[in-house]
Amino acid sequence: MQKVPMTLQGYEAMQEELKTLKTQERPAIIQAIAEAREHGDLSENAEYHAARERQSFVEGRIAQLEDSISRADVIDPSKLSGDQVKFGATVTVADCDTDEESVYRLVGELEADISEGKLSIASPLARALIGKSVGDSFELTTPGGTKDYEVVSVSYK
């Protein structure tokens, strides 16, 4: 069983989602299926089929979350320090061509969400950042060409 690196916040969010699915979603779906069955013929009952489809989705998500939680290697970034980029670091990088700065937090693959600035540790940018320190420059090959970046700051929150 391969361990999956995950921040403490990501681990807690997964546990909360699992709890919600088991204690609220699952009972609501069971109730919806029971109500739909009371309407008679199940072969043409859209409510029944929608409830069963929702049940399938929720049960699949529960299994996925349970698997991820059981394989989690929880790392608390607040207990880390230094100026070198490691898992859990919040990194500010500057595009050397445009001087545009971006802030990313290096997180596990399962909790990555670029819209929130959470960058998967498996992404090319994160792999290029690992081991770099403040002031280090690096080159990253992207589909749009080669980009030069500089590490502006590193923090652990």
From TrEMBL:
Which gene name belongs to this protein?
A: greA
**Species assigned in the record:** Marivibrio halodurans
Query: Would you tell me the protein name for this molecule?
Result: Transcription elongation factor GreA
By its UniProt entry, which Gene3D superfamilies does this protein fall under? Transcription elongation factor, GreA/GreB, C-terminal domain, Transcription elongation factor, GreA/GreB, N-terminal domain
> Residue limits of the Transcription elongation factor GreA/GreB C-terminal domain?
82-156
Q: What NCBIfam families does this protein map onto?
A: greA (TIGR01462), PRK00226.1-2 (NF001261), PRK00226.1-4 (NF001263), PRK00226.1-5 (NF001264)
Provide the GO biological process annotations. Answer: DNA-templated transcription elongation; regulation of DNA-templated transcription elongation
Question: Where in this chain does the record put each Transcription elongation factor GreA/GreB N-terminal domain?
Answer: 4-74
Q: Does the keyword Ubl conjugation apply?
A: no
Q: Which UniProt keywords are given for this protein, alphabetically ordered?
A: DNA-binding, Elongation factor, Protein biosynthesis, Transcription, Transcription regulation
Tell me which InterPro entries the record gives.
GreA/GreB_C_sf, TF_GreA/GreB_CS, Tscrpt_elong_fac_GreA, Tscrpt_elong_fac_GreA/B, Tscrpt_elong_fac_GreA/B_C, Tscrpt_elong_fac_GreA/B_fam, Tscrpt_elong_fac_GreA/B_N, Tscrpt_elong_fac_GreA/B_N_sf
**Is rRNA-binding included in the keywords of this UniProt record?**
no
Give the matching Pfam families.
GreA_GreB, GreA_GreB_N
Example GO molecular function term? DNA binding
User: What does the UniProt record say this protein does?
Assistant: Necessary for efficient RNA polymerase transcription elongation past template-encoded arresting sites. The arresting sites in DNA have the property of trapping a certain fraction of elongating RNA polymerases that pass through, resulting in locked ternary complexes. Cleavage of the nascent transcript by cleavage factors such as GreA or GreB allows the resumption of elongation from the new 3'terminus. GreA releases sequences of 2 to 3 nucleotides.
Per the similarity annotation, which family is this? Belongs to the GreA/GreB family.
